[in-house]
Amino acid sequence: MSASDHGPQTSARKRADARRNEQSLLDAAAAAFLAAGVDAPVREIAARAGVGVGTIYRHFPTRADLVIAVYRHQVEAAAEAGPTLLATSDTPFAALAQWIDLFVDFLVTKHGLAEALQSDDTTFEALHAYFLDRLVPVCTRLLDAAATAGEVRPDVAAYELMRGVGNLCIGAGRDPRYDARRLVELLIAGLRLNP
Amino acid sequence: MSASDHGPQTSARKRADARRNEQSLLDAAAAAFLAAGVDAPVREIAARAGVGVGTIYRHFPTRADLVIAVYRHQVEAAAEAGPTLLATSDTPFAALAQWIDLFVDFLVTKHGLAEALQSDDTTFEALHAYFLDRLVPVCTRLLDAAATAGEVRPDVAAYELMRGVGNLCIGAGRDPRYDARRLVELLIAGLRLNP
DNA sequence: TGGCATGCGGAGTCAGGTTCCGTATTGTTG
DNA sequence: CAACAATACGGAACCTGACTCCGCATGCCA
Lengths: 195, 195
Prior knowledge:
- 2 copies of one chain form a homodimer.
- Chain A is an all-alpha fold.
- Chain A has 2 domains: 16-61, Arc Repressor Mutant, subunit A (Orthogonal Bundle); 64-191, Tetracycline Repressor, domain 2 (Orthogonal Bundle), CATH 1.10.357.10.
- Chain A starts with 15 loop residues before the first helix and ends with a helix.
- The first copy, chain A, has helices at 16-36, 42-49, 53-59, 63-88, 92-108, 113-118, 125-148, 158-168, 180-191.
- The interface between A and B is medium-sized, with 29 and 29 residues.
- The structure holds a DNA duplex.
């Protein structure tokens, strides 16, 4: 099991019923997260999937494992979008800005995810780690390229920037007076050197 | 009882033991918040104060009431600092920047407060409301002055700015790689028009 | 000092998360 | 196909922490 392995997901040789339940759980969790956020009660997810709570814990020992499994595809897509944007954009800064936009879109549409990402609750440690492992290197490349081109301040680390962006997404969509996207734009504007 | 009345605090005519307990609770809560953040267990606060949990709920029906009472002085001080800074600073922008600095200092030294401020937990509704009632008008004045002077973009509301700043302070002090102050600076820089 | 309004303590209730183990299902082997 | 071992399942039981409620204690006033 490699260090970047999170949760069972596509699992190898398991009993047929186990694989079926795992899929039901992923579907149920996705639905529950959509309806009630990533803090949806364990019992509710189990009920939606038509399984007992024990089955959840067997497949996904911590809530983070479940959340990761549910959003894995989208996180991978974001990670892969980085290099692509860098290759196709006019300037590294444009690529960075677009990539951050993508990330913000992802976060603001997942009720409670931004909160979970920043929470110090140990339940979410693995979630935090997964996002960081997967996305910080991508962001670092974009940021470095933009810094090398002299477009942004060279003294801000990708980790810090991503946490800042993640933080700004907390509570987005709960209040029409708060537009996370606009504030992230401000933050990125503050990062820029020669407009 | 005016609309901006929060918690009993200095209370008028109550029994002597009640007033004593209220003070013990404030002291105990302040200590507990310092040690364990504003989410410190109710039972622990009660124990520190040497009272039963019922006594907490009698004096401070919601956690927000207790938090407000504990930090009231500092919030008032921040509110009063606004006009002062505006009067003594070279430019409205400088006053705004200093005031935001003050606010950030306050938040990052209160473990868990920034989190609570943004949480949608109904327990903290009153806290949210109190901060907004008290500080948004102050920030609005600073922001308006800076906008009028052409120093900042005129299209960002104080409410949004303050929530953004509050959000950026979440998790500050938990991780040396994350410096909330620096990111807030970036945000303010992004707000600026003619540097 | 007596009477009673006020306030107190903490056991009890409720809501979630997490564990555990007897039972059921699956897959394999003779 | 039958019988068995391995695997997985369900959900009752348990734990933690917030919040309520009421019989008892305390302070206040006459």
